[in-house]
């Protein structure tokens, strides 16, 4: 005990006398405590804020739930002899559900309702059964309370016993009273709408009319159909009465009547914290099992568990970077504490050697330092843990709204324990450093002073190479696992593998070991190179570092680690925030994207282009068509892919695209590669993909009919009797609308002229109410039969003409097949043929064309005007090439909708906006080319574009204007997306970026202080040790400038080397770890992938802080050397 008192006295005096060094030690311990405690508090704050936001923004059906059971009303006399099914079910739900979830509920209610009753006894009810007014007899707890409903007229119903002969008293909602024109006091009859009691009416009396105070309140969630409404066919007016009336009076009048009971629960969205989420999820799982097993004819509707599962998963994902940064910072702080302890012990080497020479043992010296550390740790723990809550609160206020969410920032037991652990770590490092130094006696101390060790213990026995090998093994495991997550066997939840989080820490440690190994060698080599030509101060400075490289190398490592972590943290923070924005823009594809039900004509023909010159400034549009396709490498394959046909001439002006989506092509380049042949006056840009026109499917879509054409005439001759053929045509009008029409039905073999009007018809041949806009273009001629074509056949054709006001005008004389091609079925090629025939003709030296077919095809049978079909140019994802076993430039057949087409791969893109290659490979075609194939090949006219992509300065105005225009054009808008809104929703999520932003702020503050104090302490200790050296140099003739240059050079050398190496190392480690952090909801990788974004503004702040510390040290060193008293220092050295 006496030695402890001595240790306490010496520690207290040392703190008082050497307060500068002790202040640095205290700062290091305080940083450890505050950082670890704040990390816990901030992590809890982040989890709580994310939970509050998830619950606040969730729909009522996602948080509220109900339990329902179906049963028949029991005769009251039977229920008196035993507990009724209703009472038993109510007691079960009260015990197993209500009592369990009571702490988390805002409200709960019970609804008892019967089956439907028809209203009778009044002429207004004498209507068809399907339109007859009706309603259920219902009781709902809480309905009659003033804070829920307001009684407008009359009173609430009273109980009606089973033996009562008075009318059944009910209350109805004001909405129902208006629907059926009910009045207070009115009596009418009701009778069951189904069952064997339909002819047994009862009399009811309206004794009250009410209205709900707030029909939108969550209390009424899911109960819309239990209140008055009109579904478009009949009005429904529920009849509300008391619970006893239903169980006694109604049950007596209609025993066995079908009924159900629903228990409804309104969740208190601020009634529980994040630490209770796991308990609630357990309650939900147990409740599901117990209700299914113990409550007959029951069902449960609850989505809260899905919401909480999604929240828990996002919390796990957000904690990966948070824990990673904490691990890295703690590792660097541990190194910082070791360095500070080593420098402190180094400054006390003479004192320790003196104690050892006076008989103190090594454990006694270590105990004295331990007591000193404890004295520093106690106030550090107190101050650090107290600072944790306000620091976390400030950071939370910066990155999410703590006050709006009503979150209480509390200092948990975990925060205090972790802070104490940080203090214990600091004291342990200090004690261990003392134990190492205390091994030396006075003789070893003098020897070390004369010739410092040039290599630390690890380098002396090459243990650093062993550590590097072990670190490389762990790093390889991280890269092979590709994630810090694991999913335990038998569990569905993702968990963090904390052992792998040590990998980045070990990676930085490996870099530190390499720097410590090669920094002295590099300095020594540089000294030898500069020595013949360099100035004295430079050579002497390099010699000093080379002679005693351990301390300078350690400081370089500290600066490198701090800078590397700053680069990693700032890059990851910027990268994650940018990734959230990129994911949102990738999902939308442009500033605005609208999905609609599709139209056979371009929606831009609806007048949307005029919006660009109207109220919506800067509006640019591009259409697209989205669907699934199949590769036809071996018939209709099961290998599906996403097919997107885009307006290649306009998409590059509106779409969002990142350069890394395609290795060597920009979006304009990709779009030019699939666009139709260059129009007159257009030129491809240099450097763009050059595709010869012969490789692209283009040209005229058909034959333009003469102006004013109203019909088509054709000479036809079936090749066999009983074929019962029909000939149709597909046309496109000036607005781009494609439609089919019927020319006629040739009968038995022999030449006959068939004529048909150009009336649009549907797939059943019925006219469509649409007036085509001339001029019309003939796309193809179709041969079909109303009874199917299962046998081979042939049809001879001659002279196609158009009916016009000027008479019949020949469209094609069919004297040659050069201008006509069969509509090839690319799923089953070779089934159709077209050739000239002189044997079957109309005479007069004419000839005909014979169109023949074989059975088995699935596509359209017909012929079309134009040149032979060339493949459509396509951009594909790499997986398409693997699936089809092809390369760029090769052709593959694909099916889309009701037709097949050949495509030639002209470019490869790893990603394309709105398409996720990780879910399904994709293919991008030109919309004009795709529609041309759809019109030519499809059994039905193509559905046309079903999306509009737009760019605009005002996204909201663009979305509203485009939606209104589409709806006015007869289209149903399914969904609209705005890029800025999607970005806001993602970026504002606390789990998306608050963990980064808050932790980065805390991390930079801690590490800048640590690095600055390390530089200051090193300068202080190093300068104190070198006072005699400086005095001797002045005695030997060195000037004050040379002395300053030597001191400044050593300091700047370490700062520059540490910052430069740290910047490089941070970028390399960040790029390596980035794929490991690319994890989104569900544990899958994000699309598009993250790109490393360095936040140079944040880094500049750290650089400036270190530069300011270096400048301050330079000024202080200049002042110190200027005040150096050579005689005094030399006399002190002689005395020592």
What characterizes the major β-sheet? 10 strands, mixed
Strand content: 15-25%
Query: What sort of overall outline do the alpha carbons produce when their principal axes are compared?
Result: flat
- Mean pLDDT reading: 80
User: How would you classify the helix and strand content by structural class?
Assistant: alpha+beta
Helix content: 40-55%
How far is the first residue's CA from the last residue's CA? 34 Å
Alpha-carbon Rg, integer = 42 Å
Low-pLDDT runs of 5+ residues are: 679-699
Number of strands: 35
Number of helices: 30
How many domains make up the 3D coordinates? 5
Task: Explain this structure.
There is one protein chain. The protein has 1136 residues and is an alpha+beta fold. The chain has five domains: 1-58 and 277-288 and 308-450, no CATH class; 64-78 and 103-268, no CATH class; 511-587 and 986-1136, no CATH class; 588-678 and 688-699 and 870-985, no CATH class; 703-865, no CATH class. Helix content is 46%, strand content 20%. Strand 16 (620-631) and strand 17 form a beta hairpin. Helix 9 (304-347) packs antiparallel against helix 19 (550-588). The longest helix has 44 residues, at 304-347.
């Amino acid at each position: 005990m006496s030695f402890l008192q001595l240790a306490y006295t010496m520690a207290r005096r040392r703190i008082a006398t050497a307060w500068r060094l002790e202040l640095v030690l205290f700062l290091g311990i305080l940083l450890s405590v505050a950082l670890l405690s704040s990390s816990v508090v901030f992590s809890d704050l982040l989890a709580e804020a994310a939970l509050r936001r998830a619950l606040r923004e969730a729909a009522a059906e996602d948080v509220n739930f109900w339990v329902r059971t179906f049963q028949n009303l029991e005769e009251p006399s039977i229920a008196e002899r035993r507990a009724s099914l209703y009472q038993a079910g109510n007691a079960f739900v009260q015990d197993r559900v209500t009592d369990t979830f009571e702490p988390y509920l805002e409200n709960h209610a019970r609804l008892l309702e019967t089956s439907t009753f028809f209203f009778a006894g009044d002429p207004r009810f004498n209507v068809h059964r399907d339109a007859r007014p009706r309603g259920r007899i219902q009781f709902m707890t809480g309905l009659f309370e003033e804070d829920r409903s307001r009684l407008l007229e009359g009173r609430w119903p009273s109980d009606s016993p089973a033996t009562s002969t008075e009318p059944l008293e009910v209350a109805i909602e004001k909405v129902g009273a208006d629907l059926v024109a009910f009045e207070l006091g009115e009596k009418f009859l009701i009778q069951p709408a189904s069952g064997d009691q339909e002819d047994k009416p009862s009399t009811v009396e309206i004794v009250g009319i009410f209205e709900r105070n707030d029909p939108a309140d969550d209390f009424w969630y899911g109960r819309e159909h239990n209140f008055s409404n009109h579904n478009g066919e009949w009005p429904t007016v529920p009849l509300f009465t008391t619970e006893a009336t239903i169980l006694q009076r109604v049950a007596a009048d209609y025993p066995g009547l079908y009924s159900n009971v629903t228990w409804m629960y309104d969740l208190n969205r601020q009634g529980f914290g994040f630490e209770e989420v796991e308990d609630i999820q357990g309650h939900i799982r147990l409740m599901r099992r117990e209700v299914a097993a113990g409550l007959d004819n029951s069902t449960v509707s609850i989505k809260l568990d899905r919401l909480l599962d999604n929240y828990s998963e996002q919390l796990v994902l957000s904690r990966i970077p948070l824990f990673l940064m904490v691990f890295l910072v703690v590792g660097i702080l541990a190194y910082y504490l070791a360095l500070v302890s080593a420098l402190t012990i180094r400054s006390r080497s003479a004192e320790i050697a003196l104690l050892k020479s006076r008989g103190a043992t090594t454990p006694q010296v270590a105990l004295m330092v331990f007591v000193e550390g404890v004295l520093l740790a106690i106030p550090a723990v107190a101050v650090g843990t107290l600072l944790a809550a306000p620091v976390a609160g400030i950071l939370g206020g910066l990155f999410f709204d703590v006050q709006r969410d009503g979150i209480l920032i509390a200092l948990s037991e975990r925060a205090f324990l972790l802070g104490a652990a940080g203090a214990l770590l600091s004291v342990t490092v200090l004690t261990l450093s003392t134990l190492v130094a205390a091994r030396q006696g006075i003789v070893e101390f003098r020897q070390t002073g004369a010739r410092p060790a040039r290599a630390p213990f690890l380098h002396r026995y090459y243990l650093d190479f062993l550590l590097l090998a072990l670190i490389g093994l762990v790093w390889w495991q991280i890269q092979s696992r590709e994630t810090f997550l694991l999913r335990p066997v038998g569990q569905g939840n993702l968990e963090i593998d904390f052992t792998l989080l040590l990998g980045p820490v070990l990676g930085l440690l490996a870099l530190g070991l390499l720097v410590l190994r090669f920094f002295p060698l590099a300095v020594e080599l540089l000294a030898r190179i500069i020595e013949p030509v360099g100035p004295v101060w430079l050579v002497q400075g390099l010699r000093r570092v080379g002679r005693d490289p351990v301390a300078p190398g350690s400081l370089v490592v500290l600066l490198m680690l701090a800078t590397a972590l700053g680069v990693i943290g700032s890059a990851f923070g910027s990268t994650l925030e940018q990734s959230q924005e990129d994911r949102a823009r990738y999902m939308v594809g442009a500033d605005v994207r609208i999905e609609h039900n599709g139209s056979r004509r371009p929606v831009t023909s609806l007048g949307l282009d005029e919006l660009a010159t109207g109220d919506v400034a800067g509006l640019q549009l591009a259409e697209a068509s989205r669907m699934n396709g199949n590769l036809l490498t071996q018939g209709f394959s099961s290998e599906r892919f996403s097919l997107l046909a885009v307006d290649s001439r306009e998409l590059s002006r509106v779409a969002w695209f990142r350069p890394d989506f395609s290795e060597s092509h920009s979006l304009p380049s990709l779009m030019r590669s699939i666009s139709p042949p260059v129009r007159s006056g257009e030129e491809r840009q240099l450097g763009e993909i050059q595709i010869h026109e012969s490789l692209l499917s283009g040209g005229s879509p058909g034959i333009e009919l003469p102006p004013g054409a109203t019909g088509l005439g054709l000479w036809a001759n079936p090749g066999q009797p009983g074929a019962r053929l029909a000939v149709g045509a597909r046309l496109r009008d000036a607005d781009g609308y494609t439609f089919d029409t019927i020319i006629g039905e040739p009968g038995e073999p022999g030449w006959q002229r068939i004529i048909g009007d150009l009336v649009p018809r549907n797939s059943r041949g019925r006219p469509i109410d649409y007036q085509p806009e001339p001029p019309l273009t003939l796309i193809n001629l179709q041969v079909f039969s109303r009874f199917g074509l299962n046998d081979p056949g042939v049809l001879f054709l001659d002279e196609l003409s158009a009916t016009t006001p000027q008479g019949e005008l020949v469209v094609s004389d069919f004297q040659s097949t050069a201008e006509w091609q069969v509509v090839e079925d690319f799923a089953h090629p070779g089934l159709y043929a077209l050739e000239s025939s002189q044997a079957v003709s109309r005479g007069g030296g004419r000839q005909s064309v014979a169109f023949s077919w074989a059975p088995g095809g699935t596509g359209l049978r017909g012929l079309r005007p134009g040149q032979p079909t060339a493949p459509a140019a396509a951009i594909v994802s790499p997986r398409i090439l693997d699936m089809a076993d092809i390369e760029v430039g090769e052709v593959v057949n694909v099916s889309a909708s009701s037709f097949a087409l050949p495509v030639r791969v002209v470019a490869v893109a790893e990603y394309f906006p709105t398409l996720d290659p990780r879910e399904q490979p994709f293919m991008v075609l030109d919309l004009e080319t795709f529609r041309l194939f759809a019109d030519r090949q499809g059994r039905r006219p193509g559905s046309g574009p079903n999306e509009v992509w737009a760019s605009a300065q005002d996204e909201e105005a663009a979305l509203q204007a485009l939606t209104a225009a589409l709806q006015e054009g007869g289209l149903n808008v399914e969904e609209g997306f705005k890029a800025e809104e999607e970005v806001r929703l993602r970026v504002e999520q606390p789990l998306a970026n608050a963990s980064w932003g808050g932790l980065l702020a805390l991390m930079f503050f801690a590490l800048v202080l640590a690095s600055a104090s390390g530089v200051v302490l090193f300068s202080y200790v190093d300068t104190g040790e070198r006072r005699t050296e400086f005095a001797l140099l002045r005695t030997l003739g060195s000037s004050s400038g040379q002395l300053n240059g030597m001191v400044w050079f050593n300091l700047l050398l370490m700062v520059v080397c540490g910052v430069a190496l740290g910047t490089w190392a941070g970028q390399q480690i960040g790029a390596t770890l980035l794929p490991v952090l690319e994890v989104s909801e569900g544990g899958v990788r994000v699309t598009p992938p993250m790109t490393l974004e360095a936040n140079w503004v944040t880094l500049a702040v750290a650089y400036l802080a270190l530069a300011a510390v270096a400048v301050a040290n330079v000024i202080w060193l200049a002042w110190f050397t200027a005040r150096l008293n050579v005689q005094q220092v030399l006399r002190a050295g002689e005395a020592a």
